[in-house]
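Thanks for the sequence, V.! I ran Dipeptidase right away. Repeating your input here for the record:
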Amino acid sequence: MTDPVLDHLRADGGILARLKAYASLPSVSTDPAYAEGMASTRALLKARLANIGFTRVDEIEAGGHPAVVAEWMGAEGAPTYLVYGHYDVQPPDPLELWHSAPFEPEVRDGRLYGRGVSDDKGPVSIALEVLAAFLAVEGRLPVNVRILLEGEEEIGSRTLARMCERHRDRLAADAVISADGARWRADLPTVNVGTRGNAGYEVTLRTAGKDLHSGRYGGAVPNALAEMARLLATLHDADGRIAVAGFHDDVREASAEERAAFAALPFDEAAWLAGIGAEAHGEPGFTTLERLWVRPTVELNGLWGGYTGPGGKTVIPCEAHAKITTRLVPNQDPARTGALLEAHLRAHAPPFAEVTVVDQDRGSAAYEVPPDHPLLAAVERAIGETYGTRPARVKVGATLPLAAIFKQALGVDTVTMSFSTADEDFHAPNEFFRLAALEEGLEAWTRLLRILGGQAT
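Predicted structure:
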């Protein structure tokens, strides 16, 4: 592709250095000990946005970590796009498993290693570099652009909905382009057209007024851990199907066409399973991709109680605890599925046990991009022109709360344009970002803005 903006980007020797400087800031949102790193990251982003020509550069908040916002509104009569990303990252722990310091980004074998380089600082940097190049070369953007860089994505976007309500004027747009979201694979051009929703719960089961000596009371009173294990086992049948009454009632079944499209994707299930050291398992009658993308789940994330320290302790625990998350598909309401889950746990608990279910968040609904949305068409065209082949439409088993929030709070749809990849160990030690994706992303974002400018005219 010959394009003056892309030529400018290819000649810019500072892009990687700027990404490394951005990724070196420890912007961990979940731990208050990183408050200084969060503030330093916001300061860096605000300075960068002001320097490249954006106006109304500011911080907005709604009771949590502030977001960074900015805008360029000089394309009279053209649509406005909200470019979304997040600057917060996961904690780097366990530190001893990293091969290099998590906040000292290091290039090895064509990859940049460091916490947050893939999720989401690399993809955000691509978007900002392309916007900066347009303003440097042409003095304008093809369309109007507002920017929202969130500081709470890694903790569930806790205040994003309130932020949208409070600051609607700063975020109003015709559609959202998300730099967050991740590609399915590096070897197959794809566009994400749907994500599952989720919700999380903590369950406590109590069987006695206090912990008891296992010799003096063992065999004569119930054990909270054993009762919790039996209770949790009722959530699924022997084949792995969710056994919660009514949980599937609102599920919108995948169409024959959609299932055929999934089946046509080049997916090596055996290699995928070998890569994680697991065997196929799940709801009967569905393929692995269908289970991941269009079927709901109830997952156990943690189970504890009694004594878990070094050595042993002869105790009968009076309490046991479990963490549960659900993944939801289109047409399922997190409030309704949560109520069904709680009703199941109470109905199947033994009569002598006290059960408490705490909803850890409001949950996020599943989201699907309208198949005929013009932004989706533009993204598909930009990716197709970059790679020389039309991208496949895929879904994501994970959750992007922002898409459902923007749809409900702002009335706009979201299309992802991310160049991180699902295998880049984000949330784990040795997170990395492919440098090839940096080059591909710069071209694709340049093409996308040109296409959107053409749509506007």
